[in-house]
Amino acid sequence: MNKELTREERTDALGGMGCKRKRVEDARFTQGKGNYVDDIKLPGMLHGDFVRSPYAHAKVVSINTDAAMALDGVVAVLTAADLAPLGLHWMPTLAGDKQMVLADGKVLFQGQEVAYVVAKDRYIAADAVELVEVEYEELPVLTDPFAAMESDVVLREDLMGEGGALPDGAHGPRKHHNHIFTWEVGEKEATQQVLDEADVVAEEMVYYHRTHPCPLETCGCVASMDKVNGKLTLHGTFQAPHAIRTVVSLISGIEEHNIRVISPDIGGGFGNKVGAYPGYVCSVVASIVTGVPVKWVEDRMENLMTTAFARDYHMHGKISATKEGKITGLWCHTTADHGGFDACADPTKFPAGFMNICTGSYDIPTAYLAVDGVYTNKAPGGVSYRCSFRVTEAAYFIERMVEILAIELNMDAAELRRINFIKKDQFPYQSALGWEYDSGDYHTAWDKALKAVDYDGLRAEQAQRVEDFKAGKTRKLMGIGLTHFTEIVGAGPVKNCDILGLGMFDSCEIRIHPTGSAIARLGTISQGQGHATTFAQILATEIGLPADSITIEEGDTDTAPYGLGTYGSRSTPVAGAATAMAGRKIRAKAQMIAAYLLEVHDDDVEFDVDRFVVKGAPEKFKTMKEIAFAAYNQAIPGIEPGLEAVSYYDPPNMTYPFGAYVCVMDIDVDTGVTDIRRFYALDDCGTRINPMIIEGQVHGGLTEALAVALGQEIAYDDMGNVKTGTLMDFFLPTAWEVPNYETDHTVTPSPHHPIGAKGVGESPHVGGVPCFSNAVNDAFRAFGLRHTHMPHDHWRIWKTANELGLHG
Amino acid sequence: MIPAAFEYHRPKDLEGVLSVLVEHGDDARVLAGGHSLIPMMKLRMADVEHLIDLQDVAGMSGIAVDGGSVRIGAMTTQNDIITSDALAGAAPIMHEAALQIADPQVRYMGTVGGNVANGDPGNDMPGLMQCLDATFTLVGPDGERTVAAREFYEAAYMTDRDDAEVLTAVSFAAQAGGYAYEKQKRKIGDYATAAAAVLLTKEGGVCTSASIAMTNLSDTPIWSEAAGAALAGTSVDDAAISAAVGAMLGDIDPTEDNRGPIEFKRHAASVVLGRAIARAWSRA
Amino acid sequence: MSGKKHITMTVNGEAQEFLAEPRELLIHTLRERLNITGPHIGCETSHCGACTVTLDGKSVKSCTVFVAQADGADITTIEGLGNPDSLHVLQEAFKEHHGLQCGFCTPGMITRASKLLEENPSPTEEEVRFGMAGNICRCTGYQNIVKSILAAATEMNAAKEAAE
């Protein structure tokens, strides 16, 4: 036998938590052997394609499918009339509304699904789409939610009661026929009183524009109905496969045990792949009708125009403070543009997601938030694009309001934040809008960040730049963007978090094999986060078997335990906790087996890295590998054979990752061109499982933040036409436009999470967007700017400079 | 995004190309690198029944520098331009501009001929050709003719080329003096918000000649004779640059798009042009 | 109106011969006809580079090439760069430096990078960023992709030197 390893060597050999383990996923991806939805090819498979509305609001007068059906190779053309007898021409949305699967008499947004063509290959399907004749009668178009709330035009006749009555919606009373809900949190009167009596009040309308998650892989599925066995298999780009299975069962009537949903490799999600889309329903119906598999994969234009927009929040804010800068109150009224159907992906009780995290990192005693959801002639969606539910909106709002307050107070924005941070000893902290922040040490993070970038030096340099600009020596201004964000992730406690009535717990099931390797299955699904790598690390540390001997499997509802999927940075906080807890069950049984083998009492052995040792006699031990074998070959009195465990974890609270970011940006006042000179990101995600992967997540989230802040938008003209339907106009930066980032961290573990981890995938996006935006705004502060809206593309920056008179 | 079906032709010589063009008139289109035409066909915004692939046609690519003159075959790619030492000496502005077109992959496929013949106001080469006072060689059923780049463009996607003609080469005199190709865009792969091509010569501190053209600021490229004239005979000081910019602003007619409103584009044009002139002058 | 055309091509060293509609896009030929699914479809308008292959020595976006244009061509995809027993240096480097996350852009990214390093064996960071600007990644923010390519360049140069 080899020489005895030291404890440290044994720990390293596990590849457990905290190490920069290389990803096990990479072998197949780097060799082109990933298995994405569009790679799936089943015998006899047909292809589906949509006829879509060119109009944003129109009556569908008639649909003629004769010419399309006559085309050789076309198998079927489905319209709402075909789906109606099955009750599938409409489907429920995640937000308690319903959505047309195929146009039922009218269309409400450009690109809406009107008919579904099924053909032998995608070329024939595309040809047939051109041959479907649809007669439309255009209706007045509403693209502005404020105008929609004043308009006589009724977008959703299906929601009107008898004689023009206005029945309640899924979230209570509606104020107008284009109104969806009002959601209120906090104390309205008390907040108004605080504002009335405050030394200083800053007020601003902060608009967070509509954008889109735009993962590189679009949405798609392959539906395969096996009529002999009555089983439906649905492969798809699903961030929540189990939830999709339940939804498909509920709307199709197929019993849930006869449905198998499989999420194969997913080419990025970022929230786009949480929802259920008409393409899935039509493909399932088409497979049932034809008896063969049907594939549907949207193209990029369809993706940008129809599935899953994000943001589109008009946030009217007021923030009050004493003249010394102590914040006393926060008021926010948001008008939320939800498009033609309310398909926002939020927990049921939170129609505006966790927007009530908008008090941010600050100790604000009194606050009030109201959100009004409104229908318009835009695509439905409202997903959480790389953030927890509406948390980017909240973080952007508070981080802009704090900057504007600093201007009002004539204070340094870093100092204003410092004097208002929730203090370390205030945690767990009860926020005015109802959350209990688990842990934090904001002052330490903030000071570390400011020191790392030499904040005072930067401000001095900026002041000199302003002087130089005024003296005509330069045409470039310098912006210093600051952000201290607090996220709320890990949804969530079943007592208040559910989607369509499904509690937002998550799960892990572990089987240890006799030879000491293992498979663990989870209810989540990786879309690039590296779950197969990191969850094995958690387990390696928990059960003392090498990470390399542990297979992680997700995404197949026939084998994985029920879970709510991956979005909102919930995988590590919820499924990661389930993994640790299941691992501990394994360890508890292993302890009994070890004690039996060592012929001592259970309490006389203790876990030590990869083994159980007899207390006080470490030379007497049984390794986990030995214990695993014993579990399968020894008859141990009172203990069942085998070594398996399952855990369903209902988190007691959310987790609250936070971070301190600084961006230094140069802005060419004449062209509006921006240059990010430096970006420093300090993240505190609690316990760090794999620093390499964390860093990668931060780089990626910041880059998506850069895109959103500096140009990425879904823009409409007044007729409701999408102006940004391809990657020519929808801004995804290349390597050339993206800087190198400096990453840093502090570690404040979550007290309620089994391993103290908080989740990190979305923090950099949540914190990054306001940081980039604050840098742009800050560059013009010396010239009197209070606030300018995103996206800060060249012409909008130019316009800001122009309005400030900086072009002479 | 799936294109409609078409008949594919891949002739080996120009005769073969012309016979298809003559037979099918405007139902036929020639295909060079395809990176403008194919996306339009995939979006079903271009209806092409007969597609004539030029890749096998002999004699249509290559860069020939002969003393003071340069001839570039239409099928020469942007990447060929970037990697040509001969061209780097004879017309470094071509190198500077080609690097600012699209992205690496597109530059391997995108050709000079396609870029100048398509008539897309967003393309960079047309303005550059006007700046260089290039001539285009067109071959049709009635033989070969040449047309000045400055006379070629009529409106967006409308040029002097007859439906039955093929643009086979561009020719221009080797450049002398200072040069600059300045382009503002939103990201790699984007068309210009504003782009300027400037060539000028200098003797004893005085500008002796200047040629200036701009891209994507009208429905055709804009070569402004007045802008060039405003620099000639001056020391290219601020006043002269302002005069040149002013002259150019009188000739452009931008439209609003996602890159911004007209007012911004006019401003960006003036800044981009001013910088291009200054850079060209510094190199003269 | 359009008949099928007889096509021959060499893909990853293997001769292929088939009949296809001229309009068939090369990316579909590879993925659906030849079951070479490494190259992916991302944007379909030649902006994202997920479909990048090497065609007759050029980095090309195969979503914007008709199969008829590629008749007679020699094509290399990610599948032809390395194999499980002998990975390409770039394939190793992307794993080593965490140059990928969801993996969807990776085949196009590595295929393009292989051509870049062939043409410029010792690029600067700026040259890598410029030379890779035809490939979009939504996950990594590029920092580790650039790092991977630079590391691969160093390693390939060292191997070359050792061999000389």
Automatic annotation (TrEMBL), chain A:
PANTHER family the UniProt entry points to: ALDEHYDE OXIDASE 1-RELATED, XANTHINE DEHYDROGENASE
Protein name: Carbon monoxide dehydrogenase large chain
Essential cofactor(s): Mo-molybdopterin cytosine dinucleotide; Cu(+)
Catalytic reaction annotation: CO + a quinone + H2O = a quinol + CO2
GO MF annotations in UniProt: anaerobic carbon-monoxide dehydrogenase activity; carbon-monoxide oxygenase activity; copper ion binding; iron ion binding; molybdenum ion binding
Coiled-coil intervals: none
Subunit structure and binding partners: Dimer of heterotrimers. Each heterotrimer consists of a large, a medium and a small subunit.
Protein encoded by which gene: coxL_2
Keyword set includes Oxidoreductase: yes
Job description of the protein: Catalyzes the oxidation of carbon monoxide to carbon dioxide.
EC number: 1.2.5.3
UniProt keyword terms in alphabetical order: Copper, Metal-binding, Molybdenum, Oxidoreductase
InterPro entries hit by this protein: Ald_Oxase/Xan_DH_a/b (IPR000674), Ald_Oxase/Xan_DH_a/b_sf (IPR036856), Ald_Oxase/xanthine_DH-like (IPR016208), AldOxase/xan_DH_MoCoBD1 (IPR008274), AldOxase/xan_DH_MoCoBD2 (IPR046867), AldOxase/xan_DH_Mopterin-bd_sf (IPR037165), CO_Mo_DH_lsu (IPR012780)
Domain Aldehyde oxidase/xanthine dehydrogenase a/b hammerhead: residue ranges: 31-140
Keyword Zinc: no
A Pfam cross-reference name: MoCoBD_2
UniProt organism field: Falsiruegeria mediterranea M17
UniProtKB/TrEMBL annotation, chain B:
Top class in the EC scheme: oxidoreductase
EC identifiers of the protein: 1.2.5.3
Origin superkingdom: Bacteria
Flavoprotein in keyword set: yes
Keyword Flavoprotein attached: yes
MF-aspect GO terms: carbon-monoxide oxygenase activity; FAD binding
Pfam families to which the protein is assigned, alphabetical: CO_deh_flav_C (PF03450), FAD_binding_5 (PF00941)
Keywords (A to Z) from UniProt: FAD, Flavoprotein, Oxidoreductase
Residues annotated as domain FAD-binding PCMH-type: 1-177
PANTHER family: XANTHINE DEHYDROGENASE SUBUNIT C-RELATED
Name the UniProt record assigns to this protein: Carbon monoxide dehydrogenase medium chain
Gene name in the database record: coxM_3
Automatic annotation (TrEMBL), chain C:
Gene3D superfamilies: 3.10.20.30, [2Fe-2S]-binding domain
The entry's keywords: 2Fe-2S, Iron, Iron-sulfur, Metal-binding, Oxidoreductase
Domain 2Fe-2S ferredoxin-type: 5-81
Molecular function, one GO term: metal ion binding
Pfam families associated with the record: Fer2, Fer2_2
Enzyme class at the top of the EC tree: oxidoreductase
InterPro entries cross-referenced by the UniProt entry: 2Fe-2S-bd, 2Fe-2S-bd_dom_sf, 2Fe-2S_ferredoxin-like_sf, 2Fe-2S_ferredoxin-type, Beta-grasp_dom_sf, Diverse_Oxidoreductases
EC annotation from Swiss-Prot or TrEMBL: 1.2.5.3
Record bears the keyword Iron: yes
The protein, known as: Carbon monoxide dehydrogenase small chain
Organism: Falsiruegeria mediterranea M17
